Every structure is written in structure tokens, then in C-alpha cells.
Amino acid sequence: MPLPKKALIIGAGVAGIAAAIRLAVKGYEVDVYEANSYPGGKLSQFEQDGYRFDAGPSLFTMPQYVDELFELADKKPSDYFRYQKLDPVCKYFYEEGTRLTAYADINRLGSEVQAQTGEPAASIKQYFENSSRIYNITNHVFLERSLHRLKTYLRWDTVKSVFRFGKIDAFRSMHRANQSFFKDKRIVQFFDRYATYNGSNPYHAPATLNVIPHLEQHFGAYFPEGGMYSITSGLVKLAESLGVKFHYNSSVTEIVLDGKTVKGVRVDERIIEGEMVVSNMDIWFTYHKLLRYHPKLQPKRILSQERSSSALIFYWGIKQQFKELDLHNIFFGADYEAEFDHIWRQKDICNDPTVYLNISSKYKANDAPEGCENWFVMINVPANTGQDWDSLIACARENILSKLSRLLNKDISKFIANESVLDPRSIESRTSSYQGSLYGTSSNNQFAAFLRHANRSSKVKGLYFCGGSVHPGGGIPLCLLSAKIVSELVD
Q1: Could you read off the pLDDT of 141-178 as tens digits, one per residue?
Q2: What single DSSP character describes residue 356?
Q3: Cα–Cα distances in angstroms (integers) from residue 374 to residues 319, 321, 360, in the given order
Q4: I need a surface site. Which of 36, 232, 416, 465 has the fewest CB within 10 A?
Q5: What angle do CA 487, 489, 490 make, to 5 degrees?
Q6: Cα(420)–Cα(44) distance, rounded to whole angstroms?
Q7: What residues contact 263, with CB distance under 8 A and at least 6 apart?
Q8: Element (H, E) at 221
């Protein structure tokens, strides 16, 4: 019998792990090379003084894409990975005092919105019908298949979607569309926030992105038992059961080519040969670092695109419990447009940023000592282009503490037992995300879906790409779909 073909994966982010699983199921011998001492990329964890934190993504939606990986390997998902549906999904706090609970049930959410803001519940239902319609038109075309193959456009469901293109609302902004659905500014802001799910600006991003609320509301939001990192650990365990080998502290320094064909990768001055290479590294670094000896391969237009926003995160061990808070909490800034203007035009941080607060100890009690909570406190910030981050971080910290203290009627600074900080610089250095952007390129124009890098090289045989910086985009579900597309392209 011939030996199995060898696949080399660069990076053990969630997309790299998923690609490894899919290729192993296809019979490939798979080796994953990870520069860090741990898997997961942004989907990692750490501990400080008795508090456990999920370091990166904190919202889990569309769990079917994780379950599918176990099912492909003829494994029972619940033997490796469990999760529970959230209700409520999130709590919202507005500066003028409004508090809004986002329930999983759409009718209950509509009633809550009407009771707290006066916006008719019927408007909420109508909005989600539109969101569902966008999903049904775009899902099979933009998310689950390569946009860079003629075969995609010859399928009947693609043709039907093309004829319904006008209904995906691509030619006005998310904000403009949301204004047409709602009169209350608080609810417009509520739905504008979904642009941040892929690091974009609701005042510029196409209203097609109003599909995102459907993904959260229809498919649900979940909390994985063990925290978000259990997604990583469960998938690594599955991959290893299929024979995938993980090599940590193993930085790939070059993708080695033989003419226009992949030969392998260089690790610690050794060349590891393989029939195919899948890069889970940010596409910018893949070309500028791993393919630096082949500058003619660089897709300069793609690599020069506007990057997505980044994040500033404070990890606080809090010596107090707050009953009014839940797993996911949002504290809105008073002037949303000004906030995004600072991020995208001024490239800095406004004095009243919207604050996202995640507290996993609400569902996993041992993430914090008894009577305490682990606070993951995040604001959206611009990608790193050389700003004075030390000054920006110091100012942002004071503004965040002032905001949370004001809206919770307690001096939060008195409860902080310990602190760690993650900013765009450290995001880039730890995860090889160019400029610390969380989602690769932004989605601030109507053609963004078509402008992302393909999942297969058109110039180098055997070279593939997965992860948040390539098609179909960032976030756990889309990263998992990028791995699925790679496995289909291999066929």
C-alpha cells in the first residue's frame, strides 16, 4: 500500500486544528506546527492568582460546526465537548439608565424591548425576518463555499441567490438600514453593535451584515462547559485520537517551494517535507514572513486592505459578586458614531467607549475564588499603526472604571485584586495577527466578502489557507468553515 500523503499545518488556531481533523479523516498524515507552547491561538486561556480567564473569543454561536467535526470522525460530540444554551443572552446598560435584557426567545425579546424603550415588539420580529432572509440568500454562497471557484457560481442555489442579490441590502450601511427599522436610538445602537462581531464599522459596513443577529438569535448563543477554551482542548483531543501530531514551541520560518509546488516547511533550520501546506497564520505574515523569498507571489491589493479593529482587554480578578450582571454584559457609550469615528478615522480611543464585560464564573463557579468574579473587560480599539498605546491604555482604564462605577453605582477600582492587559501589540506578538487586528481585513464596504484572500493559492500547487484573515472571515464559526472549504478544495 502507498504511504498516506502528508499535510503540514502552520498554526494551531481553531481553524488549523479543524483543518487537521478534516484532513486526518480523509486519510492524510497530519502534523501541526505551533510557535506557542499551547494550542488555540486567540482561543486560549490563562490563570492569575486563583482566577481563570478565557483569553480571547468569549461568545459561542453555531455549535453545529464544532459538532460536525466529531461526527465526521464517527465520534459522539458530547464525549469530548458539552455546552448549554444561554437565556438570557446578554444584558445591556445605557448611559441614561435604561437596562435591557436580550432574551433568547424572540417574542420575549420583543416584549422586553417594547417595555423598556417603547419600540414596538412587531418591529423586532420584522427585523429578524429580514435578517433571516439575508442568511438564506447568502449562507451557501458567501459562507460555506469558496468564492474563488467557477464551480460555486454554476450551482443552482448560487444562481437563485444572485437573482435575489437586491434583497441582501448591500448598498446601504448597517446603521442606515437599522434606522429604517427602528425609531428608538437605543435599539438602533443595539443592532449597530453587531458590526463589531467582525471588527467593522456599522456606519460604513454594508447592511448585509445584519445577517449576524440571525446567527445569534436563531441558532442561539451557548456556554461551553469548562469555558471557551474547552472548544480548543476538545478539538485537540479529537485530532490526536485521529493521529494528528502537534508540535509546540515550533515556529515555522518558511514555506519551502520547489518551483511552483509546495515542498514543505522550515522549522528550526530543518525542512519538513509534505505534499500540502495549510497556513493558519494571518495572511499578511504568511506572505511577508513565510514566503518572503517569493515577493512576486504577494497579492498586494489584498494585503494592503484596511484591517479590522482590534481590542483592549483588562482581565480583572474582582473581590465581589454582582447579581445584576450575567455572563455577557454591554455598557453602551452615549455617542456611538463618535466612538467609531475615533476608532476608524482618528485611530485612537474615545473618552466614553462601549464596554463589553464577560464573567465566565457566572456559569463556571471555579473560575474565581468563592465570593469573587473573573472580569474580562474589553473595548474596541483601532489596529496598531504606531499609536502611543501606553498613554491610550492608561486613559482608557480610567474611563472604563468611571463608566462601570457610574452605571453599577459602586467604585469598581476598590474590588480589583489583580490585573492583566492585552492590547493590539501583544495580540500581534502572541497570535501573529498583523497590527493586532482580530478579524484580518475589515468588512467596511459592500464587496468585502469578495476581497478576502482565497483558501487555496492560485500560483502554488499544494498551498492552502484557513483562519480569520481569509475567506469567509473571522470569528469561531467562520474560521471553522474556512477549514471545511480547504478540505473540499483538496478533493
Answers
A1: 666 655 455 454 445 454 454 445 556 778 899 999 99
A2: E
A3: 9, 9, 7
A4: 416
A5: 65
A6: 15
A7: 256, 257, 271, 273
A8: strand 221-224
Using alpha carbons, list the distances in angstroms from residue 416 to 306, 315, 372, 401: 36, 10, 10, 10
Neighbours of 399 (CB within 10 A): 18
The three cell numbers of residue 210 are: 445584519
Number of helices (H), then strands (E), in the chain: 17, 20
| Beta pairing class for 252-258 and 355-358 | unpaired
Chain segment 5-43, per-residue pLDDT in tens? 999 999 999 999 999 999 999 999 999 999 999 999 999
- Give the global pTM: 0.94
pLDDT of residue 424: 98
| Three-state DSSP state, 394 | helix
Reference 98, options 190, 9, 168; nearest CA is 190
Question: 10 Å Cβ neighbour count for 301?
Answer: 8
Q: Is the pLDDT score of 450 beyond 90?
A: no
Cα–Cα distance, 353 to 338 (Å, whole number): 9
- Side-chain-facing half-sphere of 295: CA atoms under 13 Å: 0
DSSP code, position 335: -
**What are the start-end ranges of the H helices in 32-120?**
64-72, 106-117
Whole-angstrom distance, CA of residue 162 vs CA of residue 380: 34
Q: Which amino acid is at 486?
A: V
Closest CA to 456 of 320, 283, 305: 283
